[in-house]
Amino acid sequence: MNLTFVRLELRRFFRDRVSVFFVAILPAFFFIIFGAAQSYGGESAGNGNVTMYVMISMAAYGAVTATTGIGGTAAVERMQGWGRQLGLTPLTDGSFVATKALVALTVATIPITLIFVLGAFTGAAGDARAWALSAAAVLVGGWVLSLYGLAAGLAFRSEAAVGATSGGLVILAFLGNIFIPLSGTMLAIAKFTPLYGYVSLARYPITEGRLIDGSGTVVDIEPLWVPLLNVGVWAVVLGLLATWLVRRGRARQ
Amino acid sequence: MTSTHSATPAIELRGLLKSFRPARGTRRGRSHARGSGRPTTPSTSTSTEIRAVDGLDLTIQPGEVVAFLGPNGAGKTTTLDIVLGLTEPTAGSAQVFGRRPRGAVQEGLVSAVLQSGGLLRDLTVRETIELVASTLPSPAGVDEVLARAGLTDLDSRLVATCSGGEQQRLRFALALLPEPDLLVLDEPTAGMDASARRDFWATMRADAGLGRTIVFATHYLEEADAFADRIVLVAGGRVVADGSTAEIRARAGRRQVSADLPEDTLERARVLHAVRDLPAVTETAEHGRRIVVSSSDSDTVARALIVDLDLRGLEITSPSLESAFVSLTEPHAQPADLEENAR
User: Fold this and answer.
1) Global pTM?
2) Is the Cβ of A5 closer than 8 Å to some Cβ of chain B?
């Protein structure tokens, strides 16, 4: 792995204050509003309380925003023809994707760390195993979904792509059962969307598959293979898409 | 790997052919070709295809400085993209120092200053060089290439705040990083003002003395004239002329001698008749009040016009590289689908 490349990419990310706000500050703010400040926060959600459930959800949202943001920078790079410049170096398609994914993973740890620390101070409670496994799942899942940002960024290739993918992310977060608990038909649809498996896995250490509706009632118990299959299929689809788009981007634009 | 390829051509292109399907991917494809569907086989005669490169043969030896000239859409950039491994030919072969192009790039034997090669606006000049250097197996020193490209004082400047000429010098610095044996420049001075162009070529010239092979595409004929040993003229995706600058200029035709004609009609007829009988005259023409004579022996014609025929206002003109360019590329102008370059 080319650490100079990763270091310089990280420096670029921190130079852009606006994306730092959307990646780190906004999801933390969402957590305070929807999690820490709510009266139901202390109620049980399985192996942890509701505040912890919301904490994991918002950390996942922040991590995905981070990885999508990195994909957005890839889009702008394509527009500027940076892909052709890199095409003149020995850098392979695989290491380009891997470098971007590692940068996205590193940036994703920022909202996760921030929100988990905030959660610890504002009443998120759960067993130690749930804390550790959830954090790991948010991070690893965010890494997988960096492919979503990368693929979308490579496909649209314009500065507007950054806005479009972020906008799309809010919709995918609603559809993926991140912001509000879904039920019925919406939940059935949700299971096919790319963020569903990710956030379900991240919450699994607390919920152990229990699906709750808006009133907090357990409506179903979902086997572990459903979110795993969702993440696995989306990882393969997005990975192939991203690799194909990098190849296409090298040809003259 | 260092000197073993001295007998191998720097670039060898054989029957190179590149066609694009304009329906998708090439946004500048002709609209009439849209919606007609993709051909199921890569057939070469389908009307939906654009042939940017059409059977191009070219060999460039190590150490040559070659200008790649041609009108817009001649296939210059596509050919250079193939040499750089940025795109694959549809047919034919391309070798760079006896290797496939991508292999030569990976070994650091070839690098380029691209016309549309983008830079990251939110990196500094030094960071950009560091980043590209980090992808290479044994790059030159960052400070060294900064100095060679004249960027030492700008190293902490953000790329976004650099002028076009400064950005082009940065692309040049990036191209120097692998210490390439072959340097390709695709219209390196496009969009620069005259003084930035002069600076750029001064920097290039300082580096060219190292025996490096240089191939550059340009729109500026005077750049080809001043900098190249050899000119390759491309039109319609083929090489239409190839030779030294003087040879190319000579192919445009002969020198022309012109002078004022007498006002008197009889006198004028006598002069015209006399001129046609002069030795080595290939063509005479009346342009208003002037006579224009093309000849392989312009000195004799000039003497005859002034001394024997007592004409005034004499002028002798050499064919310019520009007229060579026009006369050599125009007969090859083809139907629209051949001219179209899938940029």
Assistant:
1) 0.75
2) yes
